[in-house]
What we know:
Layout: H1 3-18, H2 31-48, H3 53-69, H4 80-84, H5 86-93, H6 97-109, H7 114-120, H8 139-143, H9 149-158, H10 167-171, H11 175-185, H12 187-202
Helix pairs in contact: 1-2, 1-3, 3-7, 11-12
Amino acid sequence: MEKQSTDKYARQVFTMLFKLIDPAFSFPGGGIAARSVAQCMAALERKHITLGRERIVDYCVCQAYAVTRFGEDYLPRWRVTHSFGEKALERYDRNTAIQKYHQDRWLREHGLSRGAILSLFQDRSQHPLFKFVFPEYEEGTKKRLLGTAAGFYICQVSTLGWTPFSPACECCPTAEKCREVTRQRYCELYRIRVEAYHERGRHGDRQ
């Protein structure tokens, strides 16, 4: 991601998450706030070599969830550096699997997930089919009668088929058969799904 896009994306994602805590929240303007975000993202990129959207989402989820742990009295005292400063970076570095579990549970309470957040802020200049790379709303359908003939039929008539991002597809015994059907039926969608998956792996965006 370009530097300007990275900073803007971080502000957008964090603002959306903070509004779950305080609906009246708006990200502060001005040079100090902009520099804090820019310096934070630059430090994050130096540490992790690349800075993809998944990492930015993970970072913002970590910081927003931390705010919920400080209590309502903390909200008026919040400053940009609290979530985009040196201590915030240290907090992210200490983020454990258990903490991520609690963060994900908090997101689910608001009808969200990390994947859903990614889809909310997709670059509109991307391929028009990009929003279907991982239609997370299909997961429930895909899990119905998973691995059975009936389940395979349900998947074919009710979803856009195999995607490498789907946990259901990953554990489905008929995944390879479905993958071939998807390749033939939705060749362009299949192409960008595979490319997006490989691209994400190359840039180290997956946690």
